[in-house]
Every structure is written in structure tokens, then in C-alpha cells.
Amino acid sequence: MALDLVFEALASSPRRQILAYLSEARLSTSDLAQRFSMSAPAISRHLSILENAGLVTREREGQFVYYQLNRDRLVNTLTGYAFEVCPVAGPLKRESRALKKSGN
Fold it and tell me: By the 8 A CB rule, do 19 and 36 touch?
């Protein structure tokens, strides 16, 4: 389910662009709305989807809410997905678990 939320969030070009902006800066809804031909409520809806997928976090400071990229969540989700679809991932994961159990 969580993987579905991430891919649903990433399916939208504006949301991918928002993530690109947030990859370098912590921005408010107003900051983001100025960079798109969208209203602040439309940006807020996109941010809500990204937040529900765990891809962004928000922090309130006074009357402003700032958003930032949750890098770990994005990287871990995409890496996990790549390992699941990679044909060699299964054997490598089993070998890794065996190494962990044996203490090597």
C-alpha cells in the first residue's frame, strides 16, 4: 500500500517538480505557488498527496507552513522497489541474510 501511495504521488508532473524544488530548499505553499501557474489551494492539494505518501514533511512556523523533502523515504522506497523487480535481488538478499545470521 505504501509503495502504491509513493508511485501515485510520483505519477504527477507538478508533484515531481515540487519535489525537485524541495530537494534544495524548505519552501512554503506560497513560495511554491509563485513558481507554478497554480493557485495556493491547488499546490496544497499536491503537497497533501506528497505528505500522505511520506515524501515530504511539514513544519509550522507562526502563520507559515514549510515543506521539505523526506529524502530517506524517497530513496528507501525506490531502492526497495528496484530490489524487488531486479532479477538478481532475490538471491543477493538471501545471501545477505545468511551472512548476517552467520555473523560475517
Answer: no
